[in-house]
Design brief:
heterodimer; A: mainly beta; 10% helix; 31% strand; B: mainly beta; 6-stranded mixed β-sheet; 5-stranded antiparallel β-sheet; 2 helices; 9% helix
């Protein structure tokens, strides 16, 4: 039995330099209004270390188009200069570009994709965010979640001041009516480091069938309905502020998920020996954003952790790993903790909500799930 | 005729098997993995397309098997204009954010290898050279078509050797650089030996080490003393900036030059491990100048020595003048600028690094009057 080890996703030397400025630098984007309907670019929020740029594109249906993605430093697309070194890959309709050397603060870059013999250019700048705005990413990022969804993660771009943020966060139904007693209010709230990430639980008593809140109020989400999570970012950032900056995240609800995840249903994309290609895992359903970051490891044959950087794919349906050193011609072991959960908090060992009277005994000690592979020759 | 063909075929077979033997012998101790290079201070090619890297920060020399051994017998020249803009685009920065620390041409393939860093070039100055930054960690390859790619040092076949007794980091040179960056100032390979110049941590800091290649645990080191004509004194703390092993009458000599710019020659057989050697100063090529690279090239079936510098254009020497040149041990007199060995200063501008590109061309890194940095060749016949 292999022992569990901590994994440290570290970055290369240049990335460390970048990291020191990444805290206060953000990507801002100016896109031609015409193109904005079909395109958007965003910095990958799961990684501040090395600044993956995601390019969401309706055109990006073929991997050949991903390979044509190019990034240039400077104000214009140069005619006779080579594009930046880096890795390009595709995950569903999202193109990724991870530069070999991190972006530099203050430098303007051009992103270039010539699909179908057309050329579009985007410009984004690394600059401090405008006064007062607090960009926010909500996980799960998919627009459809199960009716027994257990958690949201709110990832803020900067440190928030307010310890107890609950009166600035609420859920609205499709008519815009505020719903009551939806979230579990814990004091202190479940803030991550620097108060940048908040874990927001749905009231578990309304998720687990058979408990009194469920029996008296019913589940918070009904399959088939649309809801909007509303966050007053101004109030959470600075309790003294009386104005509001409302962030809205809408989603659909589908039937409750009462299946455990199954590693046998995962698919993989393997790297080549000698390269630093991305090793990718694709899940048939979105997985828990935070646990993806802590419950997946890669070991070499000597049982040492393979160090590198991870990217969580679009809608948390995939996981990508770029090693710090090139892949060797050896067998690697992917290790997945049985604690890894899907959106309804079902893990490999147990369902979150189950009828003890009728179901088999579940849970017990944590265990590891393995997938061994050799990089391609 | 048939006999001749057979003879030719068997000769070819012998030559190729000899080459293969030499290659496999030289690389038998190499391992595959990450070459932990901290600063590619100097590059030079050895036998069989093996690249030597002198790493002043790590205090090591590396021998890297680039697997770049397809023979290219072209006699064509090469030109890549505005190389800083191209590197900047590849590395995601501005032309002023790129510094080229050294280059070397693989004599087998004619591919060019550049030691590069993403450093602030505005830190450089008259006395501040790229290697004073001690930062080159990016190895780039440029093929004869001018296509640039990165050579990953994360997964490569290599061997390395410690260079003993190097000067420790923390002290500053008069040029306001960390002395550690001068622990390895140049490297050159000849006949199974790797010559490494730079500063040691000993009383007489200027040092020449000789390492066997393939690397062994043993190395030899000698401290050097040079009479500095422009300064009018003997010096032991200034390192050789560039060196070239060269044979006179079958005996290997070291031709070398120092900052400000004494030129010396000495026989390798005079070097003994742990001993001090006072070398012959044959010339003063002018103060306020630092030599950068020194090579030999052929023109009209005759050898010439070519030296590039920070302030002076290319200095050309006839090696036949060297064996009989006199040792000079006096101070420059008022009004004197260069003395000693006869030499030509060629009319070129802004040349820093040089190397042989192929049998007919010399590759130079040249800052043009318009400010652009070009990587280009000059035909031997024009030098």
């Amino acid at each position: 039995m292999r022992s569990k080890k901590r994994i440290f996703f570290t970055c290369d030397t240049f990335s460390r330099l970048w990291k020191s400025v990444a805290g206060f630098l953000l990507c801002w984007l100016s896109i031609s209004p015409l193109l904005a309907q079909k395109w958007s670019i965003q910095r990958d929020s799961s990684s501040d270390d090395y600044m993956v740029i995601k390019v969401w594109s309706l055109f990006a249906e073929r991997s050949a188009e991903a390979a044509s993605l190019q990034v240039f430093p400077g104000d214009t697309i140069p005619k006779d200069l080579p594009p930046m070194l880096g890795s390009y890959w595709q995950d569903l309709d999202t193109l990724f570009f991870r530069p070999r050397f991190p972006y530099q603060g203050g430098q303007v870059y051009q992103l270039y994709l010539p699909p179908r013999n057309k050329v579009f250019s985007f410009q984004f700048n690394l600059a401090e965010p405008p006064e007062g705005s607090v960009p926010l990413q909500v996980y799960p990022s998919t627009d459809t979640i199960p009716a027994n969804q257990l958690k949201f993660y709110l990832a803020f771009r900067e440190a928030m001041a307010l310890q107890s943020p609950y009166h600035h966060i609420w859920l609205e139904d499709a008519n815009g009516s505020k719903l009551e007693n939806v979230f579990l209010e814990i004091d202190p709230a479940l803030w991550g480091p620097h108060q940048q990430r908040l874990t927001l639980w749905f009231e578990p008593g309304r998720i687990k069938r058979g408990l009194i809140p469920y029996l008296s109020q019913g589940p918070p989400l009904q399959a088939g309905n649309r809801y909007t999570l509303v966050v007053n970012t101004a109030g959470i950032r600075d309790p003294q502020r009386s104005d509001t900056l409302l962030f809205r995240h809408s989603f659909w609800v589908k039937a409750a998920d009462r299946q455990r995840p199954d590693i046998e249903t995962w698919t993989y994309s393997y790297p080549k020996v000698g390269s630093r290609d991305t090793f990718s895992i694709y899940f048939p359903e979105p997985m828990d954003y935070a646990l993806l970051r802590s419950d997946i490891f890669l070991n070499d044959p000597e049982n040492n952790l393979v160090r590198g950087q991870m990217i969580i794919g679009k809608e948390e349906r995939s996981y990508h790993f770029v090693p710090r050193q090139a892949w060797q011609e050896v067998e690697y072991r992917l290790m997945v903790s049985s604690f890894l959960e899907d959106l309804a908090a079902n893990n490999f060992a147990r369902l979150f909500d189950t009828d003890k009277a009728t179901s088999d005994k579940q849970g017990g000690k944590p265990f590891w799930l393995y997938h061994d592979f050799e990089p391609k020759r | 005729m048939k006999c001749l063909s057979l003879l030719f075929a068997s000769l070819c077979l012998m030559v190729s098997s000899l080459q293969a033997d030499s290659y496999s012998e030289l690389t038998k101790d190499f391992s595959f993995g990450k070459a932990d290079i901290q600063s590619m201070s100097v590059l030079t090619f050895g036998p069989e397309g093996l690249l030597f890297v002198g790493d002043a920060n790590a205090g090591k020399v590396f021998a890297i098997d680039l697997k770049d051994r397809v023979q290219n017998t072209s006699k064509e020249g090469f030109s890549l204009e505005n190389i800083e803009a191209k590197l900047a685009s590849l590395l995601g920065t501005t032309p002023q954010g790129v510094v080229i620390h050294d280059f070397a041409v693989n004599p087998i393939s004619q591919n060019i290898y550049l030691a590069v860093s993403r450093s602030d070039a505005t830190q450089l100055g008259f006395w501040k050279l790229p290697n004073d930054l001690g930062a080159a960690t990016i190895l780039l390859k440029i093929n004869p078509k001018g296509e640039i790619s990165e050579v990953s040092l994360d997964a490569i076949s290599f061997d390395s050797a410690e260079v003993p007794k190097l000067i420790e980091p923390g002290q500053q040179t008069w040029r306001k650089s960390d002395m550690r960056t001068e622990s390895i100032t140049d490297i050159a390979y000849a006949e199974g030996k790797l010559y490494v110049t730079g500063l040691s941590n000993e009383e007489f800091a200027s040092n020449l080490r000789i390492l066997d290649f393939p690397f062994t645990d043993k190395s030899q080191a000698s401290s050097l003393e040079v009479w500095h004509i422009a300064h009018g004194k003997s010096e032991t703390e200034a390192p050789i900036r560039t060196l070239l092993p060269y044979k006179f009458n079958g005996e290997t000599h070291i031709l070398a030059s120092y900052t400000c710019t004494p030129f010396v020659s000495f026989s390798v057989k005079d070097l003994e491990d742990g001993k001090h050697l006072k070398v012959k100063t044959l010339a003063e090529f002018g103060f306020s100048n630092m030599p950068i690279d020194i090579i030999r090239y052929r023109r009209d079936d005759k050898d010439y020595i070519l030296m590039s510098n920070t302030s002076k254009a290319l200095i050309k020497i006839d090696p036949n003048d060297i064996p009989d040149a006199e040792n000079i041990e006096r101070k420059l007199e008022d009004g004197e600028y260069t003395v000693g060995l006869e030499h030509d200063v060629l009319s070129r501008v802004g040349i820093t690094h040089i190397d042989n590109y192929n049998s007919e061309n010399v590759l130079v890194l040249q800052r043009m009057p318009n400010g652009l940095l070009n990587l280009r060749t000059y035909a031997n016949g024009w030098l």
